[in-house]
Structures are given as structure tokens and as C-alpha cells.
Amino acid sequence: MSITIQRYTPQDRDEWDSFVERSNNGTMFHLQRFLDYHPDGKWNFHHLMFREQGKLVGVLPAGVNAQGDLWSPVGASYGSIATEDTSYERSERIVDAFMGYAREAGFKHAYLIPPPLIYTLNYSQHLEYAMLYRKADFELHYISHAIDLKHGRDFLQSFDPTARKSIRKILREGKITIAESDDYATFHRILVENKARHGVSPTHTLEDLLTLHRLMPDKLRLYLVYCDGEAIAGSLLFLTNRKVVLCFYNMLRYEFEHLRPIYLVMYETCRWAVENGYEWVDIGVSQDTKADDPMTPSYNLITFKERFDARGILRSTFHLSL
To answer: Can you give the residue range of the structural domain that contains 179?
Structure first.
């Protein structure tokens, strides 16, 4: 059976998002209600829908960059083709249909960044293998780190001794506390100060975060850490799919670093994730952003993440020369 491809239109929004929510490898970044936070015209979107005998079997959030190349995602962290838990044979036909469509549309290159394997509900890399079989190569790799919650409520025992001791001291003394919040303004103000120390700005403006919170309140969870009633640290979690919680932003006021508020953030994030049936906490990429080579690891950051039993996972960009 052949795979046909159509361009997404706003009339397809409900069908698209419903498919992503029940897909095997889709994330919140594949949802149109996530992509809707971007102002009209910011990105040259080119979203695609894959059908087999009229049935939707895959979606690709994508856009065209200034060089005329097709990228998935644009304006998001993860993209590539989202499918149901499907066979290899269908996966290959989807990839072939995509490549044929892209060539006919005049694209010379396509770049796809799928979610790491841990985001797949039923582990499968059929699509990735099909792309490699069709001679895709890799444009770039990043290393991310994620915490496996396989220990359930005993997750703290898998943390290293320093982390366990610090967390137990924080919980025992009660000098700092953590709570869910909707105070995005305070969070973003401290986040901007953090990023400025490294000469960068956050990906999202305060208005972006407020828009995301309005569009998908079920997918965002904001924590703030307090000392004497004052916010000193926090974390914005993206509930990316049924399996993975992503710590998209962590921030702290550095004059309170000695209180180790990020330890409390990591503890509460894992505790909440376990209680709500998640299997992984993704704590983000671990690159040295100041290095000339974008793949250079940040050794200190990786060592810190490993205190919480975080494991390295690859975030790879597939390149298809068309």
C-alpha cells in the first residue's frame, strides 16, 4: 500500500494533535498547540501528514530555513516523524514517501531531530534505521542526560552519597522549601540573570512562557524554591509525553547556591514523576556552549548530573541528501 503526503492546514489541527497524543514516539513538541505559541510568520512552517488508504499514519512538524533546507523541528526541541507503534516495512515506506516528496518539492537537504529512544513508549528505531538504510548521515550529535526512574519510590538510593546527604539535610532542616507555582515572572527574571552570567539569553521570553502556559497548562509544571518566603531557585518542567518529564529550565540565585536548592529541585522532580507514573526525567543537554566544537562535553555539568544517577543519551540530527 502506498503512502500519500499532504501539507498540514489549520483545519487538520484536531486530527494532528489527537494522533500525536496516541503516537508511539510523539512529544509535546510535535503538537500544533505547542507550535501555536510562535507568532504568525516567525517560521516558514512546512508540516506534513502521511496517510495510508486515507488513514493518518504519521506526522512531521517541519519548516524551511533561510538556505531552503527542510528542518524538523523548527521552533521546538524535538521533531522528525511521529508514528504509531508500527512495522519496519511501513516505516520504510514512510521514509521513502518523505524523500520522494521532498525531492519533488525541490529540497536538496532535510534534517530531522527525533526524540531520544527513551521518549518512545514501546522501544523502536524503525524510522531511524530506515533513514540510515536510505543513506542518511549525521549532521550533529549532542549528549543529554536523563534519570531512569526504574527504582520507583526508592530512587533516592540510586543518587550518590553527596546528593543523598544534601537532600536529607535539606528535608530535615526545612530552611528551604519547594512548591508548584504560576509565578512565571519571578522565575523568568531569575532565569535571565542566570543566562546573562554565561553571555546568553533564554530561548523563551516571559510572554512565550505565559502563552505556552495558556495553550497547554497540562504540559507545564513550574517549581519555585523559597528561603524565608523569597524565591531563590526553580525549574520549569515540560511533561513531554506519557513517559518522560523534561527539565527544560533550571535556575537559581547564586548567592544562595550554598543551600543547594537544585538538589531539592531534582529530588522533588523525581518524586513527583514517580508518583505520576513517568519512567524518565530528562535533565537536558550537557554541552560546553562556549567551545568551538559544538559537541564538546561540559565535564563539570555531566559530573553534577551523574550525582543523580543520570545516564547519557544521544540527541542526534539525521541528514538526508536529496
So the answer is: 145-314
Give dist(CA 178, CA 190) in Å, integer.
16
How far out from the chain centre does Cα 321 lie? 26
Crossing angle for the helix pair 88-104 and 126-133, to the nearest 10 degrees: 50
Structural domain includes residue 322: no
Looking at the structure, do residues 186 and 231 belong to the same domain, yes or no?
yes
pLDDT digits (tens, 9 = 90+) for 225-265: 999 999 999 999 999 999 999 999 999 999 999 999 999 99
Separation of alpha carbons 214 and 118, rounded Å: 28
Distance CA 138, CA 293 (A): 15
Question: Would you call 147 helix, strand, or coil by DSSP?
Answer: strand
The β-bridge relationship of strands 137-148 and 3-7 is unpaired
pLDDT digits (tens, 9 = 90+) for 258-303: 999 999 999 999 999 999 999 999 999 998 888 889 889 999 999 9
For residue 79, give the nearest of 132, 23, 135 by alpha carbon: 23
Q: What is the pTM of this model?
A: 0.94
Specify which residues 244 forms β-bridges with: 280
**Integer Cα distance of 21 and 242 in angstroms:** 9
| Residue listed under C-alpha cell 528561603 | 227
CA atoms within 13 A on the CB side of 315: 21
Question: 185: part of which helix (H) or strand (E)?
Answer: helix 184-197
Q: Is residue 140 part of a domain?
A: no
Cis peptide before 294 (omega within 30 of 0): no
